[in-house]
Design goal:
With 314 residues, the chain is α/β, with parallel strands linked by helices. It is built from eleven helices and 14 strands. An eight-stranded mixed sheet has the order 1-10-7-8-5-2-3-4, with helices on both faces. The chain has a two-stranded antiparallel sheet with strand order 6-11. Strand 12 and strand 13 form a beta hairpin. Helix 3 packs parallel to helix 4 and helix 7 packs parallel to helix 10. 45% of the residues are buried.
């Protein structure tokens, strides 16, 4: 590990207990910064309501840390929107944001568009499939941004149990993302959960970043932020244990392909070798191929979008 990374781990890796809530609130009052929480959601009716309810109770009613909760629905066919609304979130459909640009499927697409329907100086992203959710996930990763003006982006780090076994979650992280980062961006080797969906950043940084439309968004954001603001502006906070719905192996393969493609673009910005991934499923006549397209599109930095610039002027 680089000496720079070892130093970073000792100065930019914290626990949620390092900043008590009263200290975070004092910093919020002193700086006057506002906080938006965004939940990208696709068919998450079982969990999204509980997450919204916990944030509203702990971080809006008991203490006014969070100024708005926005659930961006990316085309749910279940009751995600109704459940989120009933729990107190403002729900916006992905297709209603920036309608002149046709939407494409993908998590990164939703996160990018969320910048147009939120107002916080700090934007906190939380995945909508978390179980046994704790508001520490929000306060823990938002805290450093309020208390330390030198920090621009904070990732959550946590244990990810898989079927009861500790530390076995995050398979795409260990098999794809971590090797890529260690080999090509060793300054980022200290991130425990580089692909984790719980992180917060200053709007002033997010609006300057391109957003891969799919699963490559987290890796792309880390790499681009490193080049834009440097390692010391990035941090991570231990928020405990993350429990969520796990994907099957083939879905993880598609995620890995998208992440590799995101890394490839950043390494060379060059020729697309093969923008698809073929996997196999056993059928009546043996193994049958299934070919999926790999996310190749990226959205430009939000500051380049006219509607966003007009909103900031207004």
């Amino acid at each position: 590990m680089l000496n720079e990374v070892e130093r970073w781990l000792s100065t930019r890796s914290w626990s949620r207990t390092d900043r008590p809530l009263h200290q975070i609130m004092a910093a919020k009052r002193a700086t006057g910064q506002s906080v938006s929480v965004v939940l990208p959601a696709l068919n998450e009716e079982e969990t999204v309501g509980d997450i919204v309810a916990v944030i509203r109770h702990d971080l809006m009613r008991q203490v006014p840390l969070v100024d708005e909760i926005v659930v961006v629905d990316s085309g749910s066919t279940d009751r995600t929107s109704e459940v989120a609304t009933a729990a107190g979130a403002r729900v916006v459909h992905r297709d209603d944001i920036l309608p002149r640009i046709p939407t494409v499927p993908g998590k990164g697409e939703v996160l990018w568009r969320s910048l147009l329907v939120t107002s916080g100086d700090i934007v906190c992203f939380i995945d909508a499939d978390l179980k046994e959710f704790s508001s520490d996930f929000v306060s823990g990763i938002v805290g450093p941004l309020l208390t330390d003006p030198g920090v621009d982006l904070v990732k959550g780090m946590y244990d990810r149990p898989l079927r009861g076994a500790a530390g076995q979650g995050g398979r795409v992280t260990e098999l794809m993302a971590r090797p890529l980062l260690n080999m090509h961006w060793p300054q980022l080797a200290g991130f425990v959960q580089p692909l984790g969906g719980e992180y917060a950043a200053r709007r002033s940084l997010l609006e300057q970043l391109p957003f891969p439309v799919g699963y490559g968004v987290e890796l792309g954001m880390l790499v681009d932020a490193l080049h834009l603001v440097g390692l010391d502006a990035l941090a991570q906070v231990d928020v405990g244990v993350r429990k969520h719905r796990h994907q099957d192996g083939q879905a993880l393969g598609r995620m890995s392909a998208a992440i590799y493609r995101t890394a490839q673009l950043r390494l060379a910005r060059g020729h697309l070798i093969r923008p698809s991934l073929t996997q196999f499923e056993r059928g009546e006549d043996g193994f049958e191929p299934r070919t999926y397209s790999v996310d190749t599109e990226e959205r430009p930095p939000m500051v380049e979008i006219a509607e966003y610039a007009e909103r900031k002027v207004a």
